[in-house]
């Protein structure tokens, strides 16, 4: 039986059959449930019931930032709250007594929060962070899908490790941006300190990243270069930087940041490059400026944008 919002609703209301209870509880105890969690779109009617069950186990209370999409609809805000609460269950592994918490953002929203060791996390849109309620005596390990900026609290006795689907990053105390969206290359950009960065999918040796350096993980290798880090952390202050970026990449970032869908009918636009900076623009202002430079027209229908 697949875990669905309806099953979770019954479970939160204590209306499940014995068999359904066992299935949900087995799901909650599974160590690696990232794929299942992403498949479950928890609706807003679960908010109060699930909150009653889990509020005593929440270790962090994320500070939600206002996003650059100022016209977010009511249902999207409600869904965002329900998704965070619905996924922040008390999860106890059968092989470990560790309490695992999950924070997830939707398209068009960001969250800031502090971990139990004092590490500050800024979680970008469409991202997922799995964290222990309390770190162990020897290690600090979290799992990321999407993008986050970490200000890691210094602790020379306990390395801080971020695992993604394709990479593993280990630090002692530093500030860096890690982007690990499923449909993009994994990219680490360092502001302060020193980072060890390696691939989980090939035999490439770990590389050391220093301030103002960036590592990009491709299918076959790790590529390191010197960069201006402001281009890779502007999202935290609702600033968009496009540094000679293709329009297809820009459209993808707009979809994620504003919670919209973009259809590009003018195909020759996709590989056109653009360089520019926008400080907290609304969607119309952004599209007006881009369309003037890149010579296209657009039409907005609710959360769907057609480029032609």
Automatic annotation (TrEMBL):
Pfam family, one: FecR_C
Domain Protein FecR C-terminal: 240-307
Annotated InterPro entries: FecR (IPR006860), FecR_C (IPR032508), Ferrdict_sens_TM (IPR012373)
Gene Ontology molecular function, alphabetical: sigma factor antagonist activity
Domain FecR protein: 104-195
Identification of the protein by name: FecR family protein
Organism of provenance: Flavobacterium aquicola
């Amino acid at each position: 039986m697949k875990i669905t919002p309806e099953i979770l609703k019954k479970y939160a209301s204590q209306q499940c059959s014995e068999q359904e209870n066992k299935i949900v509880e087995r799901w909650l105890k599974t160590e690696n449930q990232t794929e299942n969690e992403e498949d479950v779109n928890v609706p807003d009617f679960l908010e109060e019931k699930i909150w009653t069950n889990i509020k005593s186990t929440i270790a962090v209370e994320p500070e939600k930032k206002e996003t650059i999409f100022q016209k977010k609809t009511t249902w999207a805000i409600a869904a965002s709250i329900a998704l965070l609460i619905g996924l922040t269950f008390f999860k106890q592994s059968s092989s470990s007594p560790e309490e695992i918490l999950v924070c997830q953002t939707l398209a068009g929203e960001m969250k800031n929060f502090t971990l139990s060791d004092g590490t500050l996390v800024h979680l970008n849109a469409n991202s997922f962070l799995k964290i222990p309620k309390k770190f162990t005596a020897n290690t600090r390990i979290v799992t990321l899908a999407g993008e986050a900026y970490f200000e890691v609290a210094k602790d020379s006795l306990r390395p801080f490790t971020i695992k993604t689907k394709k990479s593993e990053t280990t630090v002692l105390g530093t500030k860096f941006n890690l982007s690990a969206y499923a449909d993009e290359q994994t990219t680490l950009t360092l502001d302060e300190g020193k980072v060890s960065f390696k691939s989980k999918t090939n035999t490439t040796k770990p590389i050391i990243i220093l301030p103002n350096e960036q590592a990009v993980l491709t299918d076959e290798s790790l590529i390191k270069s010197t960069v201006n880090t402001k281009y890779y952390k502007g999202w935290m202050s609702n600033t968009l930087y496009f540094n000679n970026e293709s329009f297809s990449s820009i459209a993808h970032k707009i979809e994620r940041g504003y919670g919209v869908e973009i259809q590009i009918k003018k195909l020759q636009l996709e590989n056109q490059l653009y360089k520019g900076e926008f400080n907290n623009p609304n969607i119309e202002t952004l599209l007006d400026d881009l369309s003037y430079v890149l010579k296209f027209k657009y039409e907005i229908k609710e959360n769907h944008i057609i480029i032609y």
